[in-house]
Amino acid sequence: MNATYDGPRLALDFDALAHNWRTVCAAGMGQPVGAVVKNDAYGLGVAAVVPRLWALGCREFWVATLHEALAVRHSLRDAAAGAARILVLNGLAGTRPEDFAAQGLTPVLTGPHELAPLAGYAARTGARLPVAVHLDTGLTRLGFGAAQLPALQPQGALWRDAQVTHWVTHLGRFHDPEAPQCLLQRERFVEWTRQLPAALRSIATSSSVFAGPGWHFDHARVGSALWGVPASQRATPMLRPVASLHAPVLRVADVPAGTEVGYAGSYTTPGPRRIATVALGYGDGLPFSLVNRGYLVLAGRHVPIVGGVAMGMVAVDVSACAPGEVRPGMWAEVYGAQQSVQALAAAAGVAANVLLALSARLAPRSAAWQEEAPEVVA
Amino acid sequence: MNATYDGPRLALDFDALAHNWRTVCAAGMGQPVGAVVKNDAYGLGVAAVVPRLWALGCREFWVATLHEALAVRHSLRDAAAGAARILVLNGLAGTRPEDFAAQGLTPVLTGPHELAPLAGYAARTGARLPVAVHLDTGLTRLGFGAAQLPALQPQGALWRDAQVTHWVTHLGRFHDPEAPQCLLQRERFVEWTRQLPAALRSIATSSSVFAGPGWHFDHARVGSALWGVPASQRATPMLRPVASLHAPVLRVADVPAGTEVGYAGSYTTPGPRRIATVALGYGDGLPFSLVNRGYLVLAGRHVPIVGGVAMGMVAVDVSACAPGEVRPGMWAEVYGAQQSVQALAAAAGVAANVLLALSARLAPRSAAWQEEAPEVVA
After folding, report:
1. So what's the ipTM on this one?
2. Domains in chain A, start-ordered, CATH in brackets?
3. How far is Cα B148 from Cα B146, in angstroms, rounded to an integer?
């Protein structure tokens, strides 16, 4: 009895996740490591990833939104859910501090406009909410800038109304910590936090955690590296890819020269060709830019994408394969052991995380699929 | 009390959906119209859209996968669920015909390799499964080609083992039905189906349903037009956009000349600028190609995207707005009344449906948001 082969399937290698977690912790040389699991764990699925990170010893999770924070809590059972620290990078963002307190969540304050809600909360409850504070040292995205540092001083409203757990900043050239702009950001971070009360200083991420003790400070928060996606231009320690994506062949056709393949005549066969239609499209996160560019892997061969990317289908030229070698029901590797996510992303002109992030919608059905454990033919 | 404003929100205009449904039905001049709701109703959310289409009189739904078909059934209650006809464009694709029969689903056969499972089913059960049959008249994607037509003749295995409800084909230049290639596809469709037993002939889609009676045949299956996304190069009847997307401002900062905004120095301010950080990124479906390209709409103004697109954030230059006019918690229109999804898609170099399709992951939380009905400030 066959398994259904009507759409792409994401698979996760949890041994690789454990390996990467240990690699990152070793690089961090003992400082606490938090896992960044925003965007449904970069598309890998919070429900699958977070309990395993917990089992590996991870006690701190970083997300972007309240919705994501609740999904992290929900993924952990009982005692674990209560003991996990969850930080929300987009800050309070209009949510009542009471709701953060009730759920045990820590907002990462995004700027001075978030101080008034904390004052209201302290006045209403007499309690000081634990918060982290984002410092904008050069990315121009979130946080308090140099002119706003007085608001963070111990005599100010922040410390009256809240308790700061982390000072947080983020690098504009996160992939290249030795860039002069990164060194300047680090210098500002050191100088600014020296003037402020003590809290965990969090600057190291997936690349800088590997850049030596000068980057470690008190804390690292790591996403990409945990999934085995190198975020660095420098030599990256051996990380192993966690995610692989396969998509099934729906049909194979031998067509004569001059046949249009796909929409709008974006490809016309220059000679007789064998074309496989694969159930994978832009709705599954395959970049629309892969018109006659890039490869999938079928029967051990890199087979070129021909024509454009439709919502749920793409064509590959499998003429190099023997007749009958590629059949409906075979699984093409989109990325995995034979083609890295970085290689496909480069062909598409996007960052590797774009491919991962957009697989989020595949995660739930893929989880069920993994439990069924069908045979992957390829 | 504020509503949370930490991520993008999709809103649906069901009056527009009703208007578009009636417009399509009028264009079809009486032939049955099926709704194409693959990819979670093109990202709008099956749970929200399908029951409303049912209430408008739609009785036939087209999806790509078994998983999607079950979601359509689940979205309808009781009698409605049983009475809806659901066609699955990716065919049996390895699923046992018994499972299609049990769920009342009709596979659209993708090629001769799908005949053997039907024979097995007929032998096991004595029943003939209702099926549709895809004919490949020129798209080179799915279906039986000219050489495979004998397998569809009344004396063959298909009719012994199954009952054909629809002959289906799809245009390679669906947006331009008057193209010679489309006329050739139609000619083949007419010629091929004339040799075959009668079943509903389905060729008209969102563009060709408006191209006059020569395209209507017995049936139309329509997706894009229902959502108000014109799929045609020809004059499109007045369709109204169903989906709009808004994303909140997280922070506003005034920065001096020479400030880098976003990753890797992709933008440096040429003078003093006011920069708003918006919670919307490639993980939400915003195309990665929008580096220093395209606009969002804030405070009634088209404000340019500066820097690149991160996983969950993008920056816009709001220097044209008065000081204090743009504040955290305001909602930027990504597409909607002031900027069409087509305009943003054009700036990104993608099809409009790419933007819609990738909003699929936003649909569930947006549905809850719509029930809360917060005030959208913009």
Report:
1. 0.95
2. 13-227 (3.20.20.10), 243-372 (2.40.37.10)
3. 5
